[in-house]
Design goal:
alpha/beta, BirA Bifunctional Protein, domain 2, 3-stranded mixed sheet, 4 helices, 12 strands, about 25% helix, globular
Length: about 220
């Protein structure tokens, strides 16, 4: 398992190209699995289920169509995106990947991470992502989108640490109009990205049963 953290914002197309190349190399047995921590410049992405009417302002930020599942979402500074490239076949004993189990693992990973900061994260039937209670209702604090090619996962999760939440106003996030979005900062948690990264790594290792021996790389 390799861990990598990019210190500067990564252009979205560059990230997708790297993920696709790395996933292919993992499938061929030529590279280790990779968990990659990044931030992006402000942008919107459209998943395979995105609806045109949910893009409210197509001139605000660049919009990228992407092969991950899901609808429209936002990426930008202050949001920790984690791209997870795992050989799901090998982890299943060379059986077909259990994609539902993998998605539940990602949700559980986010929930356990939030718990370390005193936040109760929950999942909701029919609503993708992880949700928290806020005054007057609920709000989304993390999104996830997954693609699998030749048994290897890529794309991953996006956890709102301290992004500009107003940037979400150009889309209907994940096609859900009834609820808003929030962040660790909006919930009063004054934590750094490094704080969040440390907990994410700790909880990932515990959940996915990796030894965590590979040295993290900062680029």
């Amino acid at each position: 398992m390799e861990w990598k953290t990019s210190q500067e914002p990564v252009p979205y197309e560059e990230a997708v190209a790297l993920m696709e190349a790395r996933a292919e190399a993992i499938a061929r047995g030529e590279a280790d699995e990779l968990v990659w921590f990044v931030e992006h410049p402000p942008l919107y992405t459209a998943g395979t289920s995105a609806r045109a009417e949910d893009l409210l302002d197509d001139a605000r930020f660049p919009v990228y169509e992407t092969g991950r599942g899901g609808q429209y979402t936002y990426h930008g500074p202050g949001q920790r995106v984690v791209y997870v490239m795992l050989d799901l076949r090998q982890r299943a004993g060379n059986s077909p990947p259990d994609l539902r189990r993998y998605v539940v693992q990602l949700e559980t990973w986010i929930i356990r991470t939030l718990a370390q900061f005193g936040i109760v994260g929950e999942v909701r039937d029919g609503r993708v992502g992880v949700w928290v209670e806020v005054p007057g209702g609920e709000a989304k604090i993390a999104a996830l989108g997954v693609r699998v090619r030749r048994g290897v996962s890529y794309h991953g999760i996006a956890l709102n640490v301290s992004p500009d939440l107003e940037h979400y106003s150009g889309i209907v996030p994940c096609g859900i109009r009834e609820y808003g979005v929030t962040s660790l900062a909006a919930l009063g948690r004054e934590v750094t990205m490094a704080d969040v990264d440390a907990v994410l790594k700790q909880e990932f290792i515990a959940l996915f049963d990796t030894d965590g021996a590979a040295e993290a790389k900062a680029v």
